[in-house]
Amino acid sequence: MLPNKSEPIELAGFEPRKYPQQMVKNIKTRVEEIGIFFETTGLTPMEARVFALLLLADPPAMEFFAIQEFLGASKSTISNALKRLMNEGRVDYITKPGDRKRYFRVSSQKWLQQIQESFATITPFVATMNKVLKLREQTDSPKFNKDLRHIQEYFLHLERELPRIKEKWERQQKEDTKAGERG
């Protein structure tokens, strides 16, 4: 279990000896659980753990050696994971006045943009599947062709629905912003 608001854990300059062992163990368990999910999104195990840790960090930024110490990995392993996460736009860093360290954090806006851009591959995927199915018309694999058409239909559905979903979400964001300004 993560600490609640009454017992925050400062992860920016993480030093495990300052915290109860059980608290550190619980956070490491959560990082592992969340990391396993992010492996399914194409991240390596270490990238997934670094990303999960940064999602849980409070405050939401950690310096390099704190990440390294928390995850118990080598400098090069953490460095490579951070480089890839930054190249993908999932992570960026900030600096603090008078402090030469870089503090890594989840780049929520860039991450959202990356997710939205991945949806842009749907239309080219549908076009490619059209070509594949056209080329397969004369094959003797009707079940496989049917399965491919089923996949294509799924992506056609997404292609039609995603613009409506995005528009609805953007409208809701505007309404929430207006309500926040009034409240």
List the helices and strands and how they pair.
Layout: H1 21-39, H2 45-56, E1 62-63, H3 64-71, H4 75-88, E2 91-96, E3 99-106, H5 108-119, H6 122-135, H7 142-182
Description:
The chain has 183 residues and is mostly helical. It has helices spanning 21-39, 45-56, 64-71, 75-88, 108-119, 122-135, 142-182; strands spanning 62-63, 91-96, 99-106. A 3-stranded antiparallel beta sheet has the order 1-3-2. Helix 2 packs across helix 4 and helix 6 (122-135) packs antiparallel against helix 7. It is extended and about 70 Å long. Mean pLDDT is 88; it is low at 1-8.
Offer a few descriptive terms.
mainly alpha, 7 helices, 183 residues, single chain, 3 strands, 3-stranded antiparallel sheet
N-to-C order of helices and strands: HHEHHEEHHH
The tally of beta strands, per DSSP, is 3
The N- to C-terminal Cα distance equals: 33 Å
Global outline: extended
Biggest beta-sheet profile:
3 strands, antiparallel
Helix content: 55-70%
| Share of β-strand residues | 5-15%
Query: Kindly state the mean pLDDT as a whole number?
Result: 88
Spatial arrangement of strands, main beta sheet: 1-3-2
Which oligomerization state do the chains in this entry correspond to?
single chain
What's the Cα radius of gyration?
A: 22 Å
**Helix/strand structural class:** mainly alpha
What is the overall number of helices? Answer: 7
